[in-house]
Amino acid sequence: MRKTISKDTPLSELTLRKYEKPENLSDRNLVRKLCLSLGLLQPGDSRDVMVDVFYALLIAKKEGNSLSSKEIEEKARTIRVANSLPLNGLASSNIRRQIKRLKDLFLIDCKASSYRITELSPTVEIFEEKIERYFLPSILNRTKEYLKEIDRRF
User: Fold this and answer.
1) pTM score
2) What does the longest C-alpha to C-alpha distance in the chain come to?
3) What is the model's pLDDT at position 108?
4) How would DSSP label each residue in 48-104?
5) Is the pLDDT reported for residue 11 higher than 70?
6) Cα separation of 84 and 57, whole Å?
7) Domain for residue 63, yes or no?
8) How confident is the model at residue 1 (pLDDT cuts 50, 70, 90)?
Protein backbone atom coordinates (compact mmCIF):
# COMPACT_ATOMS: atom_id res chain seq x y z
CA MET A 1 0.00 0.00 0.00
CA ARG A 2 1.38 3.39 -1.03
CA LYS A 3 1.19 6.28 1.33
CA THR A 4 0.64 9.76 -0.08
CA ILE A 5 2.99 12.26 1.52
CA SER A 6 1.52 15.43 0.07
CA LYS A 7 -0.59 16.70 -2.75
CA ASP A 8 0.89 19.06 -5.28
CA THR A 9 -1.73 21.77 -4.94
CA PRO A 10 -0.77 25.04 -6.60
CA LEU A 11 -0.95 28.22 -4.58
CA SER A 12 -2.22 29.91 -7.72
CA GLU A 13 -2.33 29.19 -11.41
CA LEU A 14 -2.83 31.07 -14.63
CA THR A 15 -3.43 29.76 -18.14
CA LEU A 16 -3.15 32.14 -21.07
CA ARG A 17 -3.75 31.23 -24.70
CA LYS A 18 -3.36 33.19 -27.91
CA TYR A 19 -6.08 33.02 -30.56
CA GLU A 20 -6.69 34.89 -33.78
CA LYS A 21 -7.72 38.56 -33.62
CA PRO A 22 -11.26 39.13 -32.32
CA GLU A 23 -12.91 40.04 -35.61
CA ASN A 24 -16.41 39.19 -36.86
CA LEU A 25 -17.46 37.36 -33.70
CA SER A 26 -20.91 37.46 -32.14
CA ASP A 27 -21.00 38.87 -28.60
CA ARG A 28 -21.26 35.41 -27.02
CA ASN A 29 -18.44 34.02 -29.17
CA LEU A 30 -16.27 37.00 -28.25
CA VAL A 31 -16.83 36.23 -24.55
CA ARG A 32 -16.15 32.53 -25.27
CA LYS A 33 -12.79 33.34 -26.90
CA LEU A 34 -11.85 35.52 -23.94
CA CYS A 35 -12.74 32.67 -21.56
CA LEU A 36 -10.58 30.34 -23.64
CA SER A 37 -7.76 32.91 -23.70
CA LEU A 38 -7.85 33.28 -19.91
CA GLY A 39 -8.03 29.53 -19.24
CA LEU A 40 -11.57 29.72 -17.87
CA LEU A 41 -12.66 27.31 -20.58
CA GLN A 42 -10.77 24.41 -22.12
CA PRO A 43 -10.48 24.08 -25.91
CA GLY A 44 -13.12 21.69 -27.21
CA ASP A 45 -15.05 21.78 -23.93
CA SER A 46 -18.79 21.55 -24.55
CA ARG A 47 -19.53 22.46 -20.92
CA ASP A 48 -19.31 26.19 -21.45
CA VAL A 49 -21.77 27.68 -18.96
CA MET A 50 -18.84 29.83 -17.75
CA VAL A 51 -19.26 31.83 -20.96
CA ASP A 52 -22.89 32.61 -20.13
CA VAL A 53 -22.11 33.50 -16.51
CA PHE A 54 -19.39 35.93 -17.59
CA TYR A 55 -21.54 37.23 -20.47
CA ALA A 56 -24.44 37.95 -18.07
CA LEU A 57 -22.09 39.90 -15.80
CA LEU A 58 -20.66 41.86 -18.75
CA ILE A 59 -24.17 42.83 -19.87
CA ALA A 60 -24.97 43.90 -16.30
CA LYS A 61 -21.77 46.00 -16.24
CA LYS A 62 -22.86 47.79 -19.40
CA GLU A 63 -26.11 48.65 -17.61
CA GLY A 64 -24.24 49.67 -14.43
CA ASN A 65 -25.74 46.78 -12.45
CA SER A 66 -24.59 43.98 -10.21
CA LEU A 67 -26.36 40.62 -9.97
CA SER A 68 -27.15 38.06 -7.29
CA SER A 69 -26.12 34.48 -7.99
CA LYS A 70 -29.79 33.66 -8.67
CA GLU A 71 -30.02 36.51 -11.20
CA ILE A 72 -26.81 35.30 -12.87
CA GLU A 73 -28.32 31.81 -13.11
CA GLU A 74 -31.53 33.18 -14.66
CA LYS A 75 -29.68 35.38 -17.16
CA ALA A 76 -27.33 32.54 -18.10
CA ARG A 77 -30.37 30.35 -18.75
CA THR A 78 -31.90 33.07 -20.95
CA ILE A 79 -28.65 33.42 -22.92
CA ARG A 80 -28.42 29.66 -23.47
CA VAL A 81 -32.06 29.45 -24.62
CA ALA A 82 -31.56 32.41 -26.99
CA ASN A 83 -28.52 30.65 -28.49
CA SER A 84 -30.26 27.24 -28.71
CA LEU A 85 -27.74 25.67 -26.33
CA PRO A 86 -28.37 22.79 -23.91
CA LEU A 87 -29.27 23.84 -20.39
CA ASN A 88 -26.62 21.60 -18.82
CA GLY A 89 -24.48 23.17 -16.12
CA LEU A 90 -27.06 25.62 -14.83
CA ALA A 91 -27.38 24.09 -11.36
CA SER A 92 -26.98 26.70 -8.61
CA SER A 93 -23.91 24.91 -7.27
CA ASN A 94 -22.20 25.07 -10.66
CA ILE A 95 -23.10 28.74 -11.12
CA ARG A 96 -21.52 29.48 -7.72
CA ARG A 97 -18.40 27.54 -8.76
CA GLN A 98 -18.09 29.58 -11.96
CA ILE A 99 -18.57 32.80 -9.98
CA LYS A 100 -15.76 31.72 -7.65
CA ARG A 101 -13.46 31.07 -10.61
CA LEU A 102 -14.15 34.58 -11.93
CA LYS A 103 -13.50 36.02 -8.47
CA ASP A 104 -10.25 34.04 -8.15
CA LEU A 105 -9.06 35.62 -11.39
CA PHE A 106 -10.05 39.07 -10.05
CA LEU A 107 -12.51 39.65 -12.91
CA ILE A 108 -15.50 40.11 -10.61
CA ASP A 109 -16.05 41.24 -7.06
CA CYS A 110 -18.85 40.86 -4.55
CA LYS A 111 -20.63 43.69 -2.80
CA ALA A 112 -23.63 43.07 -0.54
CA SER A 113 -24.27 39.57 -1.95
CA SER A 114 -24.25 40.88 -5.51
CA TYR A 115 -21.59 40.27 -8.12
CA ARG A 116 -20.24 42.68 -10.68
CA ILE A 117 -17.32 43.12 -13.02
CA THR A 118 -14.62 44.40 -10.64
CA GLU A 119 -15.50 47.97 -9.69
CA LEU A 120 -17.46 48.14 -12.97
CA SER A 121 -14.10 48.90 -14.59
CA PRO A 122 -13.10 48.21 -18.19
CA THR A 123 -11.95 44.60 -18.43
CA VAL A 124 -8.61 45.59 -19.96
CA GLU A 125 -7.91 47.74 -16.87
CA ILE A 126 -8.75 44.82 -14.59
CA PHE A 127 -6.44 42.55 -16.58
CA GLU A 128 -3.57 45.06 -16.52
CA GLU A 129 -3.95 45.96 -12.85
CA LYS A 130 -4.84 42.62 -11.26
CA ILE A 131 -3.40 39.96 -13.55
CA GLU A 132 -0.57 41.53 -15.54
CA ARG A 133 0.91 43.65 -12.70
CA TYR A 134 0.15 41.45 -9.69
CA PHE A 135 -0.82 37.86 -10.41
CA LEU A 136 1.47 37.04 -13.35
CA PRO A 137 4.69 38.44 -11.82
CA SER A 138 4.23 36.37 -8.65
CA ILE A 139 3.82 33.20 -10.73
CA LEU A 140 6.80 34.08 -12.95
CA ASN A 141 9.02 34.85 -9.95
CA ARG A 142 8.22 31.56 -8.27
CA THR A 143 8.84 29.68 -11.52
CA LYS A 144 12.24 31.39 -11.76
CA GLU A 145 13.03 30.23 -8.22
CA TYR A 146 12.42 26.64 -9.36
CA LEU A 147 14.57 27.21 -12.48
CA LYS A 148 17.41 28.62 -10.39
CA GLU A 149 17.23 25.70 -8.01
CA ILE A 150 17.27 23.28 -10.96
CA ASP A 151 20.35 25.07 -12.34
CA ARG A 152 22.02 24.93 -8.92
CA ARG A 153 21.42 21.19 -8.59
CA PHE A 154 21.99 20.07 -12.16
Assistant:
1) 0.89
2) 58
3) 98
4) -HHHHHHHHHHHHHHTT--B-HHHHHHHHHHHHHHTT---TT-SHHHHHHHHHHHHH
5) yes
6) 20
7) yes
8) low
